[in-house]
Amino acid sequence: MNKIIAVASGKGGTGKSTVSAGIGRELANGGSKVLLIDCDSGMRGLDIMLGVSRNLVFDMADAISGECEIENCVYSCGCNGNLFMIPAPHNVDDELSPDVFKRFIEAVEEVFDYIIIDSPAGIGMGFRTAVSCADLALIVCNAEPISLRGCEHVRQCLIDCGVSDIKLVINKFNGHNFVGMGFYPDLDFVIDYAKTQLIAIIPEDLRMVAAVQSGRPAEKGSPASAAFERLTRRIKGERVPLQL
Questions:
Q1: How far apart are CA 6 and CA 162, in angstroms?
Q2: How much of the chain, in percent, has pLDDT values that exceed 90?
Q3: Which residues, 6+ apart, have CB-to-CB distance to 195 below 8 Å?
Q4: Residue 95 in 3-state DSSP?
Q5: What is the dihedral angle through the alpha carbons of 212, 215, 220, 222, rounded to the nearest 10 degrees?
Q6: Nearest to 156 by CA among 128, 119, 189
Q7: How many CB atoms lie within 10 A of CB 39?
Q8: 1: confidence class by pLDDT, cuts 50, 70, 90
Q9: pLDDT at residue 132, as a whole number
Q10: Burial classification of residue 82, based on how many CB atoms lie within 10 Å of its CB (0-12 exposed, 13-18 middle, 19 or more buried)
Q11: How far is residue 153's CA from residue 81's CA, in Å, rounded to a whole number?
Q12: DSSP 44
């Protein structure tokens, strides 16, 4: 089982954190105990998406520095008793090294069925720290040229970091706009360019955007919510057909 999942992207704006939150919620809804870790030091946002921003006192850097116990920086995401999160350091100067992060993961991993790590965009040290423990990496991209270029770089860096199980998530997909912009002849071209096995296509869904920005779960049965449900089943190893 892929217990530790890193979610990465080559550039900002792909919806990487939304994908992290969506997977976490669906796994928790299925009965798994899930920990989401925000690794975007100085730019954290998962706490807003999960509705716990007003509760934050301590973050991961506080636990590592000894300012608090680890359990003090783990926050329950109210609406689901199986979902928890750890906020990223508020200060970018508190960014962790891969070795320190690995020891931190070792201290918490036995308590959870899944750990989802929301890495910072790009391929800097924060990214390398975030993916250092990953069993599975999901590259989130949009079906447009700049995003795909970033996807190519992220894939190679993941391989360099020793991550071999890498899957592609095409996020915020709008079929009408895809055809109208004419960047690519079809989605197969996008997948071939990314050189990464596709695991999910998440459709553009304004209801999902509104829910995430408000810290609420997405409406059950919405297009994006249904896509996340299929994605988590595939992560668990089920044979679920891909759908647009």
A1: 13
A2: 57
A3: 152, 155
A4: coil
A5: -20
A6: 128
A7: 26
A8: very low
A9: 92
A10: buried
A11: 37
A12: -
Among 129, 38, 51, smallest CA distance to 87 is for 38
Please name the residue that has the structure tokens 């680890």: 70
Q: Tokens 């409406």 belong to which residue? A: 219
Q: Which of 157, 226, 190 is nearest to 6 (CA)?
A: 157
Could you report the per-residue pLDDT of 116-149, keeping only the tens digit for each? 999 988 888 889 999 999 999 999 999 999 999 9
What is the DSSP annotation of 50-91?
TT-GGG----HHHHHHTSS-GGGG-EE-TT-TTEEEEPPPSS
Q: What is the pLDDT of residues 154-211, one digit of tens each?
A: 999 999 999 999 999 999 999 999 999 999 999 999 999 999 999 999 999 888 888 7
- Can you list the positions of beta strands (E) in the chain? 4-8, 34-38, 75-76, 83-86, 114-118, 136-141, 166-173, 197-203
Tens of pLDDT, residue by residue over 53-112, are 888 899 888 888 888 999 999 999 876 789 999 998 876 655 678 888 899 999 899 999
Distances (CA, A) of 223 to 46, 187, 205, 229: 21, 19, 7, 10
Long-range contacts, stretch 92-95, CB < 8 angstroms, 24+ apart: 92/41, 92/42, 92/43, 94/41, 94/61, 95/41, 95/42, 95/125, 95/126, 95/129
Strands 75-76 and 83-86 come out as antiparallel
37 and 109 Cβ atoms separated by less than 8 Å? no
